[in-house]
Amino acid sequence: MSNCNEVQEKIARGESLSQAERAHTTACASCAPVIADFSVLEAALSALGAAVPAGFADRVMAGLAAEGCASSRPPRQWVPLALAYAAGVLAVLNVAGFLASVFIASVASGGTP
Amino acid sequence: MEDEALVGQIRRGNREAFRLLVLRYQRPLFRFLGLLGFDGASCEDLAQQTFLSAFRALADFDPARARFSTWLFTIAKRHASHERERAHRHHETPATEATDALSRSPAPDPAEAAALAQRMRTLDAALGSLPQELRSTFLLSQIKELSLGEVAAVENCPIGTVKSRIHRARERLRLALAPGETS
Fold it and tell me: Among A63, A111, B100, B156, which residue's CB has the most CB atoms within a 10 Å radius?
């Protein structure tokens, strides 16, 4: 046999009842009025809530098009640019280092650069 | 297709994938906004703002941190809150969704229509009298597309708090609608 308090708590929380609990509520003088009251509430609540007007999704999509919305940030083009720049700088430093080493070697051997 | 997969497609430039998300969430979103008390025109404005904001901010959406539905309803809640503040500042009293619901409902006979009208007014007043936190949590719980965990994420509180708020809100609304109660 279901505990009335427990069943009424479940009804009050809007939780679904087991088959045994449903059977109990139809026979129990304490639970029957509670479930009847909540049925009135459920029925009233189900009548509330605005209906979706026809063509709503089309209007949303038209709104996106009108605003020219972008769904994401533009690709981060600075990343490849920065990498290319860094590679260029490294290449220049490399060449400069090579030339410097040739110059130093040349000076050390008494020649002219 | 899962929401997150659609989000991936949108990020890769397939804008039409966003239409599928709109179609998937428009009904629960309108229901949520209607339950919050906004009338049909305001619901459409707010729902449109919500979807446009979501699209613009899609680059910031992190599927590892939240489900798309949670994220979307968080945006909707923020827009609804701003609209409420704006209406309050301008002393506006927008038509409630209860009024709209009544106008949509077929009325089988005058006595039943009158009883229904009274119930809807009572429910609307009872919802309006709930403290903001209770009201917001309870209304989110009415969106079947959101689990309790997702409601907790939108409300930024533990699931236990969500359950407690739902319980308290339902009890207050039940009492308001119970026979013999007057609004």
Answer: B100
pLDDT tens per residue, range B126-151 = 988 999 889 999 999 988 888 889 99
Q: Which long-range contacts (CB under 8 A, 24 or more apart) does B42-46 make?
A: B42/B83, B42/B94, B43/A50, B43/B97, B44/A50, B44/A53, B44/A56, B45/B83, B46/B76, B46/B79, B46/B80, B46/B83
Nearest chain A residue to B56, by CA: A71
pLDDT digits (tens, 9 = 90+) for B150-181: 999 999 999 999 999 999 999 899 888 876 65
Kindly report the nearest CA distance between residue B89 and chain A, in angstroms: 24
Among A46, A72, A73, A76, the residue to mutate for chain B (most B Cβ within 10 A): A72
Share of residues in chain B with pLDDT > 70 (%): 85
Residue A53 maps to a domain: no
- Answer yes or no: is A59 within a domain: no
Chain B hits for A64, CB-CB cut-off 8 Å, are 15, 18, 52, 55
Using a cut of 0.80, tell me whether the model's pTM lies above it.
no
Total domain count for chain A? 2
Domain that holds residue A109: 78-113
Domain boundaries, given as residue ranges, for chain B:
3-177
Q: Do B44 and A56 touch (CB under 8 A)?
A: yes
By CB atoms closer than 10 A (0-12, 13-18, 19+), residue A3 is exposed
Nearest chain A CA: its distance from B117 CA (Å): 10
Instruction: For the domain made up of B3-177, give the CATH fold.
Output: Rna Polymerase Sigma Factor; Chain: A (1.10.1740)
Pick from B169, B24, B43: nearest CA to B100: B43
